[in-house]
Amino acid sequence: MVIEDLGDKASFVFPLPNPLPGGEGVECRFINSAVYILFIAIYHRSLQTTMKALFVLIVLALLTGCSSLTLALKSVQDFYSSIPLSKGAEMAPVAKVQASKRQAPVRADTLPPSSTTDFSRAISTPSTLSTVVPPPVIDPGPFSPSKILKIGSRGEAVLALQKRLAELRYEVGAVDGFYGQQTWQGVVAFQKYAKLKRTGTYTLETQKALHTATLPEGRYPELGLPRIEVDLSRQLLLFFDEHGLDRVISVSTGSNRKYCELSKKSEKEVCGVARTPRGKFRILWRIPGWRESDLGKLYNPLYFNGGFAIHGSPLVPASNVSHGCVRLSIATSMWFYDTVKNGTPVIVFD
To answer: Could you give the 3-state DSSP secondary structure of residue 139?
Structure first.
């Protein structure tokens, strides 16, 4: 049997087989031919031809000397199994392939048509649903205060603080027993989430809150994983990877104040309102290293809405002071740039 590739259709050419075993020749060849006609009719979905071929097959089986109809059908089956299909038989019809592409759901990594597009409407379903189960509540035991820790502190108390913050996914940098800038950022991030005074110092109030703290939770699990949540009221960024909450990062966003400054590039006056856009976006493009903009330098910027980016900065205080971008520390922006992929959903909310 030969199958020829004709694009959307295939044509079958059936040669007659050799006589069946057992000395039965011409009669069974007639029955075989009738079986072939029956198969062709079924393939082309012709009810009329199918009924005719079936009728002829039954009549021949009754009138001829062929031993049985079963033997004839087995002959046809053996004949088919001995012939390899051509390559064209493995190809799906072009029209069906094109139809399947049109019916396929939009992938979550498809970028929205414009930066103003609501991300929740730009995709049919999240790439991965957020199914992270919070850790079980464990009795922390009696509270035992430590000494007040701040930038420059060293020792086991600092190491215990860093381990506890890292356990709750707060970004602290290296867990090495030294209270540096990254540990300060981690303490500030916790104070922001717990709605404490943002001092960056490990005060007694902060110690008590950290003693009973649980894993932070996101506000928009329906966006799936991975995703980035920017909480403007708390000045926090929560990064969720494919497995769940990966990091809680202290950020500094737009100050919401009017400004008029000389451009760092053209030296012309640039005026505007330092406001971070609210809404649902996604990471669109990026620039590695330092980039000079009209309003200053950005390190490893990841752009999510026009010229607004999540980027590294040497100045990330506990409050919102930027021109509208989302500032991270330089150290944090290094791994953040390498980890976050283009197309990652970003939601910014108050």
So the answer is: coil
d(CA 116, CA 159): 44
- Superfamily classification of domain 135-216: PGBD-like superfamily/PGBD (1.10.101.10)
Q: Tens digit of pLDDT for each residue in 220-252?
A: 999 999 999 999 999 999 999 999 999 999 999
**Which one is the CATH code of 221-349: 3.50.50.60, 3.30.460.10, 3.40.50.150, 2.40.440.10?**
2.40.440.10
Q: Give pLDDT tens digits for 300-349.
A: 999 999 999 999 999 999 999 999 999 999 999 999 999 999 999 999 99
Other CB atoms within a 10 A radius of the CB of residue 172 amount to 24
**Phi/psi of residue 146, nearest 5 degrees:** -110, 180
Beta-carbon neighbour count of residue 269 at 10 Å?
9
Residue 262, both tokens = 């000389």
Instruction: Identify the burial level of 126 via C-beta atoms within 10 angstroms of its C-beta, where 0-12 means exposed, 13-18 middle and 19 or more buried.
Output: middle
Q: Which of 30, 25, 24 lies closest to 67 in space, CA to CA?
A: 24
Give the Cα separation of 329 and 315 in Å (integer). Answer: 7
Give the residue among 290, 331, 285 at the shortest CA–CA distance from 308: 285
**Displacement of CA 221 from its chain's centroid (Å):** 13
What residue spans define the domains of the chain?
2-96, 135-216, 221-349
Cα–Cα distance for residue pair 270/264, rounded to 1 Å:
10
